[in-house]
Amino acid sequence: MKSILTKLTIALAALCQGAQAQQLYPPCDRKATVETHFLFSSMQRLQGAGALFGHHDATAYGVGWKFDKDRSDVKSVTGSYPAIYGWDLARMEHGSANDINGIPFKLQRKLIKQAYNRGGINTFCWHMDNPFNGKTAWDTTHNSAKEILPGGSAHQTYVTYLDRVAKYIRTLKGSEGEAIPLLFRPFHELTGNWFWWCRNACTPEEFKTLWRFTIDYLRNEKDLHNLLIVYSVADFDTKEDFLLRYPGDAYTDFLGFDNYCTKSVPDYQQKLGRRLALQQQIADEHHKLSCLAETGYEQIPMANWWTTVLQPELQKNNRTSYVLAWRNGRTDHYYTPYPGQVSEQDFIKFFNSQGNIFQNRLTPLAVYGKYIIQGTK
Fold this sequence. Notes:
Blueprint: H1 2-15, H2 34-45, E1 51-56, E2 61-62, E3 65-66, H3 73-78, E4 84-88, H4 105-117, E5 121-125, H5 144-148, H6 155-170, E6 182-185, H7 204-221, E7 227-233, H8 239-243, E8 254-260, H9 265-286, E9 289-296, H10 305-316, E10 322-325, H11 344-352, E11 356-357, H12 359-362
Parallel strand pairs: 1-4, 1-10, 1-11, 4-5, 5-6, 6-7, 7-8, 8-9, 9-10
Antiparallel strand pairs: 2-3
Helix pairs in contact: 9-10, 10-11
């Protein structure tokens, strides 16, 4: 064990050369599991060494394939899986067999375990249907959040949703029965105006109360202590915009935002750089990690987008913990290249940059405190 820990220390030190020395802070859940605590410390140590690259539903499907074993569009292009694996809890609130994108939850569970076993990091968003009226996450009925809080007309429905999700999360265990650490990103894009929890549908105080109730319930009533909490906004221009609905340091571990390249590329790049810098400032003040929780350029029509648009902003803001590209859902809706796609060669250059960390570089770092050696348990 001592030799393994020595190897781990050397590996982390080698990757983190040039990263700023820093004080490490504990997860906001003071009862976090050993593996969860170790993951959060590891991700803090990696600040400045490179951004972990992630992809949503990376190993479940891609352009032209679905549910193939050991497959990933990222891996088909680069030879490596991503370091971060994004998933969605949507439909579990109803006890459904499949998630919102058609992945059987049994398969999702298997893929999450596989990612964890190779030393990867799993993160959940939740496009939760509206507990108040049963409509989709994209319903914007006013007062929905208020009505699912304690004392509200739909509170028990919401508690039932949480119970079902908690039951599923409890099944996500490693080979020794330990709870797999998860980055949990509820109520994302909260500064937008398209979900029932967004700024146009509830007040800042209602949102903060909902967030705190949710996290407290999962921790204290359902005894889930393997969640690192991600507070993820959409558009923001000032610190005040970002923090208006912030639930507090006791309820968050990561600060993030979603930012897609949907209009002019220069406009996206300028806003991305400015927001990453401002978010890092806020994260430092609150002792949190900063991330780009969702991004991408649909169909990636620009051949050198990865190295001339995204990479420069990540280099300028090199303490960004991770960046996650959205899913490869259809031939007209994908955010990472596949073999033969116009940006494939540029993505390989992006992959080879020392500023980006994929699974091949993450595995030796044993971010959960478990050194992974070929052929050993």
